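$ ./design --mode recover --in tokens.txt
reading tokens...
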């Protein structure tokens, strides 16, 4: 019997040792919720690490939230440009709201801005009188090219019945449409095809792929009711005597159109100055507001 007694003691010792180890392993877990400071250095370090991890994790989450919030902040407002804010689809809607007085002032202000070297007398010579402008603010449709024929009809006698006619004299239009660029003028010509007949050609009065001599020859042989072009080319043709103004009734300025750079015919010095020089030619100026053979300027 004495040989069997050590076995229970060894087993008991083994079990007791295992229980002690389990008890020691369970002490840090029991101490963690209490937050006791009586734990050993290792327990403090372990507990501190877990706390810092949670703290850092919280900080990281906060940064993410802050970043998310910053992404949702509205962009910084740019300086307001009146013209741009009233522009939709390449059309400056503010132009159509101006009467003759406002348009005349608009022309002068642009001339002063583009030509600071000019004297007061020179600016006065380039000014267009209020009486030259026909008020078109009653036109409610969008001033897109598709509406240009309707615009001309609305401000022509007999609802535009004579727009498709031309003088017997070659190169003598009743209407000139002036644009800021040759490509735009080409688009205008296409938009006015509804007024073209065999006896009344819509003239291409611009330099794009058309030499000056070719344009002169065209006007010398063709009856033209409407001519569309750029200020410089039209002036050159008038100077050459090929483009005659004897029966001119209206000058339409393609003023509402703005290009991809948000520029209209009034915003470019290279087109605005030639435009003013054309509009203030003596043979035109003397007919603004005249009783006979009156010429009106319409800004589309």
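writing sequence...
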């Amino acid at each position: 019997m004495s040989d069997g007694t050590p076995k229970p003691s060894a087993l008991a010792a083994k079990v007791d040792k295992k229980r002690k180890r389990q008890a020691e392993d369970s002490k840090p877990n029991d101490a963690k919720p209490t937050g006791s400071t009586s734990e050993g250095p290792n327990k403090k370090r372990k507990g501190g690490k877990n706390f810092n991890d949670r703290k850092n994790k919280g900080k990281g989450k906060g940064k993410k939230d802050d970043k998310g919030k910053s992404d949702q902040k509205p962009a910084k407002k740019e300086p307001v440009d009146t013209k741009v804010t009233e522009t939709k689809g390449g059309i400056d809607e503010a132009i159509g709201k101006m009467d003759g007085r406002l348009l005349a002032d608009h022309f002068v202000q642009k001339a002063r801005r583009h030509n600071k070297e000019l004297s007061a007398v020179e600016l006065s010579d380039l000014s267009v009188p209020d009486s030259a402008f026909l008020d078109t603010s009653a036109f409610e449709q969008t001033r897109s090219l598709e509406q240009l024929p309707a615009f001309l009809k609305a401000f022509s006698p007999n609802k535009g019945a004579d727009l498709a006619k031309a003088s017997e004299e070659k190169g003598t239009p009743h209407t000139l449409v002036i644009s800021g660029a040759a490509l735009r003028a080409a688009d205008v010509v296409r938009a006015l095809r509804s007024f073209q007949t065999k006896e009344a050609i819509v003239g291409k009065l611009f330099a794009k792929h058309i030499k000056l001599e070719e344009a002169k020859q065209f006007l010398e042989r063709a009856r033209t009711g409407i001519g569309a072009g750029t200020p410089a080319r039209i002036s050159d043709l008038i100077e050459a005597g090929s483009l005659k103004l004897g029966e001119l009734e209206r000058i339409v300025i393609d003023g509402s159109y703005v290009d991809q750079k948000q520029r209209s015919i009034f915003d470019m010095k290279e087109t605005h100055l030639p435009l003013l020089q054309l509009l203030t030619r003596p043979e035109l100026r003397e007919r603004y507001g005249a009783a006979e053979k009156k010429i009106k300027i319409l800004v589309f």
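exit 0
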